[in-house]
Amino acid sequence: MTDVAIRAVGLRKSYGRVRALRGVDLEVGRGEIFGFLGPNGAGKTTTLRCMLDLIRPDGGTIEVLGLNPQKEPVAARARMGYLPGELRLDETMTVVGQLRFLSQLRGKRLDEPYVRTLAERLDLDLKFPTRNLSKGNKQKVGVVQALMHRPELLVLDEPTFGLDPLIQREVLRLLKEAREAGTTVFFSSHILSEVEEIAERVAIIRLGVVVEVSEIAGLLRRSLRRVHIRLRQPADAAPLRTVSGVRSLQQDGATVHIEIEGEMEALIRALATLPVRDLETERPTLEEIFMAYYETAPKEGG
Amino acid sequence: MWALFLNAINRFRGQVLGWGISLGILALYLLTFYDTLVEQQAQLQQLFASYPPELWAFFGDIGEMFSPEGYLTIEFFSYMPLILGIYAILAGSGLLAGDEENGTMDLVLAHPISRTRLFFGRLLAFLAATIVILGLSWVGLVLGLNFTTLELSWQELALPFISLGVVLLVFGAFAILMSVVLPSRRAAAMAGGLAVVGSFFLTSLARVDENLEAAARFSPLNYYQGGDAILGLNLEWNGGLAAVALLMVLLAWWRFERRDIRVGGEGSWGLPRLRRRAVT
């Protein structure tokens, strides 16, 4: 059994003239919680739908749990749980009827005790007709159906979308528990704080290309840090520009603002030559790192 | 496939009951007039003779109106392909494309079922629903026999429904094929509606205009027997129509197996819109 849950190599997909995926390369290990970040239209949902053989890539390869979903879609999907980004349920059924039908599609009976536990934790009434559910409650049904058969791989497109903060936290707890039970969790999200909270690694996709894959801690460590230095009296800080890792420097009298990438050791040594009174460092949030990738992005369709 | 079939048939419930019971009642109601019509045959023949032949072209041969099969053709079976054709087109175009457009297919196909099973599960449900609708209409006619002197057996009354069913299969299969080729359910329904109405007019007008006969050979309704099927099913015609329907189903299945599952208009062609010119 391979240690890789998802592997995409040079995955390409176009819709007419729109190139949704321009060569996605991605590798997700088994048992990981992996966040997939990108704004609308970056190619997140297209990548996810390729994993389930809902759409066929134009080029490249994708492998899920060691299977090619284009060649063995049924075998691959039997081991996956999926929550679509735009979840739509059959509105003619009750919640439990819906879950029973989806279990039947797996050739299984509904695991009622487990489903009841999930529903209680998410505060979901199983007897409700689906058509009367709010957006948030429909999303809860989506989360339950993805988890209820204890899949080896969870592929979730914006799992907490439309949920209130308390339920969002419960969903994140469920995902962590699933991971502890051996499930690989691959999810896309716009809410970077939740990605930062539960994901071990993230991929950032921009214009159909994965531009960064990193452990969250590493990403934060490697990213630009802002350093604010106050001097006892104005002094020339320009030589600091030559210090390794310094990307920008602004001086306003006795105050110096520096942006530095990577290790701080060289900067600290250089600062010893200046009359430093106070020093403050500021780490960017994941959101700022994410935005930095996009502020420099070329526009689509050019 | 059983779960998919049951789920689909469950969604057809309303259509089956609505169409089936309505047409059954209509069939029963129409049969009760047959005896009155025969009693007034002489006066009615004089009246009908004054009507233009183009009118009768749509309903059948006026000379046959007083025979059991002629009466059933003119009063019931002549326009059934048009009425139930609309059902077949709407049901066929929505069978797969409806779920794609409302987004429910993504969830269903995220489960371990093949597209083939989904396709044929839905198709079987469509066939079953169509058979039940035709069956309820047939029951209406059979019950109507109790209120008329019309000497027909229930087996004979079933034959025109076979001819009608085969035509509906052609229209339904065409709509399914269009729904997997064209970008939206609406476009498929429009193409199917045009096919039904076009076929009805072409076949009808070809009865009074020889120039249209060659074109009418391509119309499915050219091979529709209506009430005449009581005298015997034309196996060649019905078999030919069934073969055409099967071919279209297989093409639709082939296409559905290979194409992307759409969601939210993804991959749509988009019809041109009429835009009002901005006034400044």
Question: In a nutshell, what does this entry contain?
Answer:
By secondary structure, chain A is α/β, with parallel strands linked by helices. Chain A has ten helices and 13 strands.
Map the helices and strands.
The complex is a heterodimer of chains A (302) and B (280).
Chain A: E1 4-15, E2 18-29, E3 33-37, H1 44-51, E4 59-64, H2 73-78, E5 80-83, H3 95-105, H4 112-121, H5 135-147, E6 153-157, H6 165-180, E7 184-189, H7 192-198, E8 201-206, E9 209-215, H8 216-222, E10 224-231, E11 246-252, E12 255-261, H9 265-271, E13 276-282, H10 286-295
Chain B: H1 2-31, H2 34-39, H3 41-49, H4 53-57, H5 68-77, H6 80-94, H7 97-102, H8 104-108, H9 115-144, H10 154-181, H11 185-206, H12 213-216, H13 235-258
Helix pairs in contact in B: 1-9, 6-10, 6-11, 9-10, 10-11, 10-13
Describe what this molecule looks like in 3D.
The complex is a heterodimer of chains A (302) and B (280). Chain A has 302 residues and is an alpha/beta fold. Chain A has ten helices and 13 strands. The mean pLDDT of chain A is 89. Helices cover 69% and strands 0% of the residues of chain B. Chains A and B meet through α2 and α3 of A and α1 and α8 of B.
Number of strands of chain A: 13
State the shape of chain B: globular
Question: How do the SSEs of chain A run, as a string of H and E?
Answer: EEEHEHEHHHEHEHEEHEEEHEH
- Specify the structural class of chain A: alpha/beta
Which secondary-structure class do the elements of chain B indicate? mainly alpha
Distance between the termini of chain B: 60 Å
User: What general form of chain A does the structure show?
Assistant: elongated
